[in-house]
Every structure is written in structure tokens, then in C-alpha cells.
Amino acid sequence: MCAALLGATSADAAGTIGLVLMHGKTGMPSQLAKLGAALTASGYLVDAPEMCWSKNRIFDKPLDDCMAEIDKAAADLKSRGAGRIVVLGMSQGGAVALAYGARHPELAGIIALAPAADPTGLSNYADLQRSIKSAQPMMEAGQAETATDFNDIVNGKTITVHATPQNFLSFHGPDSPIVTIKAMMTTVLPKLAEPLLWVSGDRDASQGIAGKAFATVPHNPLDRHVAVEADHVGTPDAAIPAVQDWLKLLK
């Protein structure tokens, strides 16, 4: 599944690279606290905003507006002295990092930790399918901004989210760029031009499609797909050495 990392070439980039760290669905910035601390100690600039799919905010904005928050975080990092920006995301944040990267080829790099547009496929999740189907007629009836309860999936378990149909479908609708990783293999991943580090845990069921998905990314000599000893939740901490080694390759 993985390719070996090359050795570090230079640490000179550390002072000029800023990283936007994005947590997973229903997660919080604290999910990436250990990774953020390690990167800060290595001299990188870090911003870890609470994204619109957090436990507190889940789907309080549509996906495009969420991506605008990444723009703000990147601007803040540049104001602090970052010359180049790397976008890093975990799980749902990883899927968004990939989609953001497809729109922003000027990025210095993308780091996707166990990227997952939950679920990998919709066929086994009838509750989620029903919610998607119920949201679509609400949009057509002029209720795009009427918040209601929808079923969603986190790590294979059904949860309830209170959101507007517009916001919910921006993540799960048929036109969403991140509806599933399988869909992203044709809509997002082939558009990536930046260097990409994809990290998969060896005990993470969400990463069963990762090898095939990574193969759809246009070749960049700095692209890496690395396996770590971890389940889904443990991937960010397990990935710290791989992330630090890979960042040293970005001259």
C-alpha cells in the first residue's frame, strides 16, 4: 500500500511553511493537538480552526463556505510569515483537503490523513440514503434553508445532524465533490497538481479503497502513500514522523 519516504533533504523550509490542520467529522481541533504541537516545535506555523463539520458546528455552512474558512486560515498564516501553505486534514477533513487542493494548485502541498468521505459507499446505509432523498424535495420546495434532522454516518455508525438541506446536500448530495472517496477518484483526485502525502492506518477499514484512489492522482515526484500502525482515530498521532519527514522534502 505504501511507498517508502525519501530521506530529509533540508529543514530550511520549516520557517516559511504554514499548515492549516482540519479535524474529522464531529471532531474538534484537539483531535490534532499532538500533531500540531510537534509541527510547531519543528518550526512550522500552524492554524487549527474549528471547521463546519465539528461536533459543535456540524454542517452550519455549505461546503463552499467551509472552504472559504480555509482561505481565511491560510491568510492568517501568511500574515504570521508563512511563505507557502500546506493543507492537512483528517478523515472528513482529509477529503476536504483533497477537494480544496483540486481548486488551489498554488498550494505547497496536501496532507490527507485517513481521508474519508463517510461512508465509502452508500449502499449499506439505508438511513443516510433516506435522508439524502428527503433533502432533495425540500430543496425543490423552497425549503433549502429550513433546518431539520438528518441521518449521517461517522465511523460506520449512524448519527443525527440538525442542518439545512442545502448544507447537508453540499456534503452528501449527488453533486457534492466529496460525496464518497470512490466518486472523488473521478471528480477530484485526477485534478491534483500539488505534492500529496496520503497516510493510511493499517487497521482502518475506511482506507480499503485508498490504494486505488491514490493511483488516480497525477504523478508528482513528491507524492507518497504511507501506511502506519493505527486504526482510524489513531492515525494523526501515528502519522507524526511521516508528516515531519515528508515536509522536509518540500524545498
Automatic annotation (TrEMBL):
The protein here is known as Serine aminopeptidase S33 domain-containing protein
Residue span, Serine aminopeptidase S33 domain: 20-122
Task: List the Gene3D superfamilies.
Answer: alpha/beta hydrolase
